[in-house]
Write a structure and sequence with these properties.
mainly alpha
Amino acid sequence: MSNESVDSEVVKRVKANPKYQELVIRRSCYAWILSVSMLIIYYAFIVIVAFWPKSLGTKISPESVISVGIPLGVAIICSAFVLTGLYVRRANTKYDELIRQIKEEAK
């Protein structure tokens, strides 16, 4: 039996495993939720820029040189890191365990 046919048999067993199907569905749903969350955050900022640009130029306090737009922009960038961290935490705790189980069953 060639190495290629052994690999294709392993792939077939993995794809037939219900845990693999569960992993694909759970990971995809979570990724979509986080992606949509980031898009909402980003496009909300774009809408504010488009329709209320003066609100972003408002200074935080009368004597400040920093406008509202600066911390809001930083918050948007930080939200991307937070959402990425959430995905990594979920992948390291739940998805890795499912992957380990799938590998064990495929042997």
